[in-house]
Design a protein that fits this description.
With 218 residues, the chain is of the alpha+beta class. The protein is 57% helix and 13% strand. It has eight helices and five strands, in the order αβααββαααββαα. Helix 1 packs across helix 3, helix 2 packs across helix 3 and helix 4 packs across helix 5. It is elongated.
Amino acid sequence: MRKKNSTQSLVRNLLKAHDGALRKKNIRDMIGLSGDRGYGRVNIAVCSLVKAGEIVKTGYGRYRWNQDVPESKYCKKQTVSWRFMWIRTKKNDPFTARKVHEMTGIGLYTVTRYIAFLLRTGHVEKVGTEKAFKTNAPLYLIMPDKMNADVPVMRKRRKTRDLDEKMGEARSLAASFFTTSDLKISTIQSLIETTKKLNQILDECRRIALSLRKNEGD
């Protein structure tokens, strides 16, 4: 449990309330510390907050509060996904995005985006393919030098957060059409209901997208 008046807490609260960026020396003075020892405490706190994605470096040794801090629920999904991938990699057992989705219960769209992020940042690598339905699904493993790394966190863009979530729902529902193999009346009726719900979600996506365009002045 984080101490209420820890250096990290003091640095976090200062930058959160401050407009603009500050140097470590300024941060040290403003939270009531002094000397090399005080600077060292601030340096450790700043490094931890940067790693957590709570503050960002803006250049010239200045740091500011990150206005786009990842939501705890969103981060938890990534942590669960990463843990599953870590276990599979430890066993040298490659995984697909769909396998992560099925075993963790996290939306396929969210998992797919997270793996794409991990590929871009060099945390995972493609090691082959696996037959999935009528296509080949990529197989992945975590890179050996990243096995002891902290959980990589992909931050959401605030402007498109609602749209991302709705599109994730839509993709998950659409995936049900490709996993249906029987022709029972009950199954067909279920797909009809799924289609209705899918249309509702896509209407919401269109509304959100139009609102974003309007706000951007397009």
